[in-house]
Design a protein that fits this description.
Elements: H1 2-10, H2 13-44, H3 47-72, H4 77-94, H5 96-111, E1 119-122, E2 125-132, E3 136-141, E4 146-150, H6 151-156, E5 159-161, E6 168-176, H7 182-195, E7 206-212, E8 218-226, H8 230-248, E9 252-258
Antiparallel strand pairs: 1-2, 1-5, 2-3, 3-4, 6-8, 6-9, 7-8
Helix pairs in contact: 2-3, 7-8
Pfam family, one: MS_channel_2nd
Organism: Fluoribacter dumoffii
Keywords: Cell inner membrane, Cell membrane, Ion channel, Ion transport, Membrane, Transmembrane, Transmembrane helix, Transport
Length: 271
């Protein structure tokens, strides 16, 4: 107890209070400056660059104030630097995966295959990019899940950016019975696509006779472009096709309609 009291009496309380002030002031100062940098860069560059730049500024300024505070408390700067160097070397050996993710994050920064806010597809994951951090990228899926993907995995795998080109093409394949007139059906399909609010007038919609099929039927392809979610557009088109064909008594071959997966193959699927 006596040693503790003696130690407390020998402490330079003014320097200690000043050091704590530097840490607290440095934190809020770095926070304010980094926020200002983020807003400045967001207006001139991408949100991705703004976010990373603000974090570099925050950690750099806060580290500077922290080192100054430790110096005020009596820690020698040379000892701090040597300790930091040894810690960095030990950390690099202990966390090679983290270093790989960090380097991959730098490559993502310069290559820019996607940005914050883009919708991307990675393996069986599809969602909106919420954040691109130093070690990982966070994606929000349509069912409101947040998925963290290491940057190294993104660099090594194929990524599809669904937001690079706003206009996307989709197709619906219909197998029509041979008893119906092809030109009449084409006219009906063109009218359906013109009335669809999500289909773009340019590039124009195409209704093509793709091939003759068994039992004398024909296969028609509806090719259209849209800026909206293709699943929503397809739902609108198919609902209108079903209503129109039922009214006009138009039948499918074996009562089947081909609906290929969005932006993929045209494998026939049951209605």
């Amino acid at each position: 107890m006596e040693h503790t009291l003696a130690y407390l009496k020998q402490m330079d309380w003014e320097r200690l209070v000043f050091a704590l002030f530097l840490i607290f002031f440095g934190y809020f100062f770095a926070k304010k400056i980094s926020h200002w940098i983020e807003r400045l860069f967001e207006n001139r560059f991408s949100k991705h660059h703004a976010l990373l730049s603000s974090r570099v500024v925050f950690y750099g300024l806060f580290l500077l104030f922290t080192v100054s505070a430790l110096h005020e408390m009596g820690f020698k700067l040379t000892i701090l630097l040597s300790t930091a160097g040894l810690f960095t070397v030990a950390l690099s050996f202990a966390s090679q995966t983290a270093a790989s993710n960090l380097i991959s994050g730098v490559f993502l920064l310069f290559e820019r295959p996607f940005q914050v806010g883009d919708v991307i597809s990675f393996k069986d994951i599809k969602g909106t990019v919420e954040a691109i951090d130093w070690l990982s990228t966070k994606i929000k899926t349509n069912d409101n899940r947040l998925i963290r993907i290491p940057n190294e995995g993104l660099i090594k795998s194929e990524i599809t950016n669904l937001s690079t080109y706003p206009q996307k093409r989709d197709e619906i394949v219909l197998r029509i019975d041979s008893v119906h007139d092809v030109n009449t059906i084409k006219s009906l399909l063109y009218k359906i696509c013109e009335e669809c609010t999500h289909i773009l007038p340019t590039p124009s919609t195409k209704i093509l006779l793709s091939q003759m099929i068994d039992r004398g039927g024909v296969e028609l392809k509806i090719l259209y472009w849209s800026k909206n979610d293709l699943a929503i557009v397809r739902d609108e088109v198919l609902s209108a096709v079903k209503t129109t064909f039922e009214r006009e008594a138009i039948t499918f071959v074996n009562e089947r309609v081909v609906m290929p997966p969005i932006a993929s193959s045209s494998t026939p699927l049951p209605l």
